[in-house]
Amino acid sequence: MKQIDVVKEQVYYVVSLKGRIKSYDFIALKEELYRDIKEIQPVILDLRELKFIDTSGLTLILSLLRWCNEGNAAIVSYGANEFIKRIFGYAKIPSILPMVDTCEEAIRLIQKVG
């Protein structure tokens, strides 16, 4: 299964993380992510199909967050299951990455903070 998909919408990207993201996936996923994102625009991070993430996966998300922040682009995530929310909570991710439940909420938030 492909673990990352990047879809370019009109004014934002949707980055979907899927399956189990572990340390041995990090380099390939980071290369794929930055190859597919061509310009700085807001990012919606779709976590609905993410089942597991370790510290390397968190590093991937933090690097995307830093990239967005440096380019003054908004980033928001949605659809995280309870396990992912708990892992994010331990790492204090929700304090720096807005998390909502649905894609519609994520789109509204991206449009609001833009």
Describe the fold and architecture:
The structure is a single chain. Helices cover 41% and strands 27% of the residues. With 114 residues, it is of the alpha/beta class. The protein has one domain (4-113): STAS domain (Transcription Regulator spoIIAA). Strands 1-2-3-4-5 form a five-stranded mixed beta sheet, sandwiched between helices. The longest helix has 16 residues, at 55-70. The chain is globular, with a radius of gyration of 13 Å. The termini are far apart. The mean pLDDT is 92.
CATH class: Alpha Beta
Supply the CATH architecture. Answer: 2-Layer Sandwich
CATH topology (level 3) name: Transcription Regulator spoIIAA
Instruction: Classify the beta-strand content into a percent band.
Output: 25-35%
Strand order of the largest sheet: 1-2-3-4-5
Question: Topology as H/E string?
Answer: EEHEHEHEH
**Structural class by sheet pairing and helices:** alpha/beta
Low-confidence stretches: none
CATH superfamily: STAS domain
* Percentage of residues assigned to helices: 40-55%
Radius of gyration: 13 Å
Mean pLDDT: 92
Secondary structure: number of strands: 5
The count of domains is 1
Largest sheet: 5 strands, mixed
The end-to-end distance, rounded to whole angstroms, is 32 Å
**Total helix count?**
4
User: How does the overall form come out from the CA principal axes?
Assistant: globular
